[in-house]
Amino acid sequence: MTQKVGAQKIGIIGGSGIYQIAGLEDAAWVQVQTPWGAPSDDILTGRLAGREMAFLPRHGRGHVQSPASVPFRANIDALKRLGCSDVVAISAVGSLREDFRPGDMVVLDQMVDRTVSRPASFFGPGCVAHVSLADPVCARLSALCATALRQVGAVVHEGGTYLAMEGPQFSTRAESRLYRSWGCDVIGMTAMPEARLAREAELCYASVAMVTDYDCWHEDHGAVDVAAILAVLAANAGTAKAMVAALPGLLPVGRPACPCGCDRALDHAIMTAADRRDPEVLARLDAVAGRVLT
C-alpha cells in the first residue's frame, strides 16, 4: 500500500506571461521572509477545487526580475516554508526541434545547465551535501501535468531536454546550432538552478515549457523576434493556466510518498560530520533540510 505522508500542497512558479492565477478561494498575497533574502514577489495562496495552492511569479508582478537576478534560493525556500510538497514550474522556451512548434507545450525530463553566475545550492562550507540529479524532475508529477494539458486540449510533448542558458540575450546562431547538435530540444533561461534547488529542498518538481519561437537556428524563421514571442506567449499563458486549474482534480487524496524519491533526496546526502556543522549554516537550512538536520 502506498504510504500517506500528509497533505499535498502544490506550488506553482509562473514564468514569463504568467503573473497570477484566477479562481483561488480565500486568495491572499503573503509576504514570506527567508534566510536567502526576499523571493521574487509575495506569494498568492488559497484553495483551488479544495486543494491548497501557492503561486509565485518567478519574475515578479510586472516582470521586474531578469533571469540572472531571480532569487532562486529564496523562491524555493519560501515555497517549502509555506508547506508546499510539489512544485510545477512553467517557463517560456525557444524550440530546437522542427516538430516542437510555437504554441506547443513540453513536459521536460532532462536539463543541461549552461548558467554561470547563479548560486546553485543551499549547501556549502559548514554543511556540505551532494544530491542526485540524474533525473532532475519528478516523473509522477510530470505525468500529472501532461494529463492535465491533454485535458485542456494542448499539444503536448512528453519528455524533452532543456538547455538553460545564462541570458539575458538570446543565442547566437552558432550557439543555437551547437545546442541542437547536443540533442537539446528547447532552450530557456530559468529552469536552472531552480530544478537543482528544488531537489535539495526535497520537493517534487515538474517543469512545463511553453514554446514561443524557433530560437534562431531555423532558416524559415530568422532571428528571435520579441513582438512575435509575446503574441504566442499570451495564448500559451492561457493554456498553462487551464492546466493549473485541471491539476487539483487529478491529485490523489493525501500525499503519497514519491516513487522517484524526491521527498527523500537528502537521506544520504549530508557529508559534513554532525559535530563539524556550522550552526549559522544550519539555521539557514531550517526549511529546506530540517527533516534530516534535526
Based on the structure given, which CATH architecture of the domain at 90-293 is correct?
3-Layer(aba) Sandwich
Regarding CATH, which class of the domain at 90-293?
Answer: Alpha Beta
Proportion in helices? 10-25%
Low-confidence parts = 1-5
Question: What fraction of the residues are assigned to beta strands by DSSP?
Answer: 15-25%
Task: Give, in order, the helices and strands.
Answer: EEEEHEEEHEEHEHEHHH
Report the average pLDDT across residues. Answer: 92
How far apart, in Å, are the first and last alpha carbons? 28 Å
Number of helices: 7
CATH topology of the domain at 90-293: Rossmann fold
Morphology call = globular
Radius of gyration over C-alpha positions, nearest whole angstrom: 18 Å
Largest sheet: 11 strands, mixed
Q: Structural class given helices, strands, pairing?
A: alpha/beta
Strand elements, count: 11
What is the CATH superfamily of the domain at 90-293? Nucleoside phosphorylase domain
Tags for this model:
single chain; 294 residues; alpha/beta; Rossmann fold; 11-stranded mixed sheet; 25% helix; 21% strand; globular; disordered N terminus
